[in-house]
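Notes from the pairing session

We agreed to fold both candidates in a single pass and log them together. This is the raw record for the first candidate, unedited. Please don't reformat it; downstream parsing expects exactly this layout.

Candidate A
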Amino acid sequence: MRPNLYLLFLITLLSFTACKKSDIEHENSFEGSFKAWKNFRESSSNSYRYVVTGGSWTGYSWQTTLTVIRGVVTRRDFRYNAFNDILRPAGGWDAESREKILAAMKVTAAQFAERSGRELEDVLEWSEEEGDLGKNMETPASSLMTLDEVYDKAKNDWLKKRENAKVTFETNNNGLISSCGYAKDGCQDDCFNGITISSIDALLVGID
């Protein structure tokens, strides 16, 4: 190929690449955060604990704590921080707070267990470890996701450009994802599709 033709081809190729539109929102912020994640993953030996929060306008809020050791989820802890507008006491759910919930719902403990298939205390707060991870099925708890999987879902789902939707991406955990998702325009209640992470902490693990 003659030099001037090669130069023309190169300019055309570069122009096409520069004009190619991204199919995700907040691409630069995502790439910066993904780089921060890779640094964190290496420095922590891919071992960390992160907390996912959620809630509903109907008077419920909750949090899920996921423990990841060397890239594998090994524990999931869940608790409601508010249940039917009853707030969790600082010391944890106790008999008095459970009675308030039952009174507000106008049911007995036996009726609640019959309807839900579980005792109230087992609904309000629970833990799973290796061997029983995922046993709690009907729950708003976060999925058993590593942060690698969170970033993958962010790129391939939550941040995709959509018509008539607002896409959010925040990195308030020292550059790591703190909020990522979208809400459709005109939606009134519980509209957010994505993830909210309140904290991410590295864990010290032994060296094999």
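Candidate B (folded immediately after A)
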Amino acid sequence: MYSNIWRNFIAAADKAANTVILAVGPVFIVLAVGLIGLATTVYFTVVFPSFYVWDEDYIWTKIYYYLGLIFSIYMVVCIFFHYYMAVRTKPGGVLNVGTEQSDSNDPTIQDLFLELEEYQEYPKTCKKCHLPKPERAHHCSVCRRCVLKFDHHCPWIANCVGHFNHRYFLLFMTYLVIGCFYFALVGWKPFLLSLGETGWDWSMPRPYVALSFLLAVAIGLALGGMCSWHYYLIITAQTTVEFYNNQYARRTARAKGEVYVNPYDLGPVVNLCQFFNVGRNYKYPIYTIFLPIPMSPPGNGKVWEKNPMSYANVQTEISEDTD
């Protein structure tokens, strides 16, 4: 009896927490845009003019100035573009596969079952939303729906990170981390001046400069670790959810004297090319990674290319069991 009461309490608390996370998403977006906007304003009003000094008498200082200005604008554009796309792009649901399809073209449940039956003898069904569950799809307890190639729900974008917006999310983190470390590298002198009481020639108040510098360092370190973790997952063809599932599968296989092979791991280089959809066998040229333009991921997020070694291991296990 008490165990049932406790389980019901945990379920209710989890549901309430997920509801709060979903509700406060827009607040996190406003906060993120505000903090990045503050740091950007401080950079162009204080940090940039203090580091890139204009000198009419030397051509090299002018070139240096313009190169720094172009780089700075490029970084700001990339940060805001990829953040906007990560927020606005649907990660991909079971019945609505992305932003390229309208609701009138969304597949029905019957269509989805028929599509999955081409690749799976018995298509899986989600135990929570009771819909067909493609491979690599997982149920988000916050959004209460299955998401294609689900990685996690991020409150800072008020959205799930999934098949169609994972690329934007990763590039947003990448550019933001680079921008934070660059801000700290060129802005440490104005930061030290902002801590004093004299020698301040800027219209921007000192506390804003100090706050922006500390935020850049803190976010650069924290987000840098998270960004590195996501690159590791990508080059090993895993999502955050799949990483923990694969860890369990490896331990189980090791206990049986077997070797587990991630079926989606095609090698680090191919995994990266597949994720960004660039390279010889994919849609876009490699240089498009550095352009702030919309780019679709490969495939529909329901069916994925497999590593032949995973099939070899399965056949070996079957033959051993038969013997």
